[in-house]
Amino acid sequence: MLYQALTAVFCILSAFSALAAAQTASNASLLDPSLYKNVNVSRGLVYHYYYSPPSQVGKPTLLLLHGFPSTSYDWRHQIAFFQDEGYGLVVPDMLGYGGTAKPVDPEFYKSSLISRDMVDLLDAENVNEAIVIGHDWGAKIVGRLANYFPERFSAFAFLSVGYFAPAVLERSFAELNNITQQVFGYENFGYWGFFSTPGADNIIESHLDSFFNITFSADKLLSITDFAPLGALQAWLEANRSTAAGSYVTPEERALQIDAMRDEGMTAALCWYEILTSTIERDDNQGIPQENLTIKKPVFFGAALEDYVAVAASQIASILQVSENTTTIQQYDSGHWVMLEAKDQVNSDLLSWIENL
C-alpha cells in the first residue's frame, strides 16, 4: 500500500511538473502586449512596435527588423534573450504586417521611405544611436539604413540575407532569373514573379496551411524544387500540397502565425515584392549617396548554410564586397529561419559581437 501511495504521489507531481513546463513554454512564446506602442511616423503612417528601454547603464538599443511573411513575433527568442541581458529593444511590425499600416500601393514600400520610418521610431524613443539587426527583407532595410542614415547606427547585422546591392536591380527580373538558373541550376528569385502577380494574395489566403508549411518547411530542399523556381510555388499552392513544418516552430506558434496571416490578409505584404519586379525599387535606389554605398562600421553576417534561396556563398560575398570595417561572419547549419532554428547559437554570437564592438 505504501508503494502504491508513493507511486500515486510521484505521478501527480510529475503531471504538475509537466503542466508547469508546458505553461512556461507557452508563456515564453508570447510577447508582452503591454510593451507594444503605436506611433505616427513623419509620412503619416501608423507603426506598431515592441519597445523596452535598456535596463542596464551603458547597454545600447537594438532595432530588430523582420521580413516576409511575418511580424515582430519572428524575434521572440531574441527579445527574451537580449531583454534579460539589459539591452534596449525597438522591434516593429514592418509596413504591411501586424498592427502596422497596410497600404496596398507598392510606392509606399520604397526602401528610402521605410528607412526613414525606422529612424522616426528611434526618434520617438529618443534613441540617438542603435545597433540594427535584420532578417530577410528586414536585412535589405539594414543595408539601406547604412546607405541613408549611417550616423544613426553603430553597427549593422544581417541574418540569412546579406547586403542587397542597388546594382542587383539594374538587371531586369528576367535577367536575374536567367543568371541564377545558370549559376544554381534553378531560378532562385522565380517566386518573386508569383508574389507580384495579381491574385497571388487570394491564392495564398486560400491555402494558408500549405503556404506556411512550405515557407517554414522541415525539408529545406523543397526550396529548390517547389518554392523558388518560376511557377513552382503557385503550382504547389493550387494543388494544396503540404509538408511538415520545421520543429523550430511549435504548433502553438504555427497557429498564431497562420491566424495573423488570415486576419491581416496578404495583399499589403506582397508589395515588398512588387517593388522589385517593377522599376520602383531600382528608381528609388538612385537617391543613395555614392559615398554611402559601402558600410564603414562593423558588420555581422549570420549565414544559413541550408538556405537555398538566399544561398550562403552569394550572401557572404555580398557582405565582403560592401564592408570596409570589421566584418564578423558566422555560419549555421540552418535553413532560412536562422534566428528560430539556431536561436541559441545566433543569440550567443550576436551577444559576443555586440559586447566586443
Automatic annotation (TrEMBL):
Q: Which Pfam families match?
A: Abhydrolase_1
Coiled-coil regions in this chain?
A: none
Instruction: Name the InterPro entries on file.
Output: AB_hydrolase_1 (IPR000073), AB_hydrolase_fold (IPR029058), Epox_hydrolase-like (IPR000639)
- The positions making up the signal sequence are 1-22
Residue ranges annotated for the AB hydrolase-1 domain, each copy included: 60-164
- Report keywords, A-Z: Hydrolase, Signal
Q: Give the family per the record.
A: Belongs to the AB hydrolase superfamily. Epoxide hydrolase family.
Name the UniProt record assigns to this protein? Alpha/beta-hydrolase
- Species: Lentinula boryana
